[in-house]
Amino acid sequence: MSAPTEVPPLVSRALDLSRRRGFITATRHETGRLLATLAASRTGTLAELGTGCGVGSAWLSSGVAEGARIVSAELDPKLAEAVQDLFSDTPSVEVTSGDWSALERYAPFSLLFVDVRDVKRSVDLVADLMEHGGIAVLDDFTPSYTWPPIYEGRVDVVREQWLTDERFVAVEVMVAPDASVILATRV
Ligand SMILES: C[S@@+](CC[C@H](N)C(=O)[O-])C[C@H]1O[C@@H](n2cnc3c(N)ncnc32)[C@H](O)[C@@H]1O
């Protein structure tokens, strides 16, 4: 790994929670470091759709500038409650229990980590949530070396849409040999 192996204390606590809950879809370190790096360049409101056990929010909070805030929504009320506890001493992070759409009232976002599968599939939904210049982050892609992008023998139309939609300037970035992320800046 070409990055420090230590992770910020809140990330470590969120990963512990993931382990205790058997939650296997937590954000991986490479994506987390990217989230922290992008968060450091943002002002205003950053958001995450799909909190899980709080790993993504913890990475965002490790980079976020003073004065900016992070809102995150988790559908599973038990997970949301556990993560609210985790961030009880972190006033810059607010975790909402319920559907991601509860966060619409905080839009537009300067950064949006889209980690709910159905929303990832809708460029239209995300475009309406972003401020101009805001960055949408979508993870969990398998790197594709072709155009159009191929996944499991088929054209990956979701990725194709993200990389060609005129409302965004977007790029697929490999964060590890087996993982890529789409960064899409709203124009
Ligand atoms: C891939 S996991 C999130 C991982 C998390 N972002 C992290 O950094 O570790 C997706 C999460 O989205 C939640 N979810 C699914 N549908 C949702 C919805 N409609 N609104 C909010 N959260 C949702 C799931 O319960 C699950 O915890």
Automatic annotation (TrEMBL):
- InterPro entries to which the protein is assigned, alphabetical: SAM-dependent_MTases_sf
Q: What are the EC numbers?
A: 2.1.1.-
List each coiled-coil range: none
Instruction: Extract one GO BP annotation from the record.
Output: methylation
A Pfam family for this UniProt protein? Answer: Methyltransf_24
- Alphabetized UniProt keyword annotations: Methyltransferase, Transferase
Cited Gene3D superfamilies:
Vaccinia Virus protein VP39
Taxonomically, the superkingdom here is: Bacteria
Which molecular function terms from Gene Ontology are attached? methyltransferase activity
Leader peptide range in chain numbering: none
Give the EC class as a word: transferase
Q: What is this protein called?
A: O-methyltransferase
Record lineage = Bacteria, Bacillati, Actinomycetota, Actinomycetes, Propionibacteriales
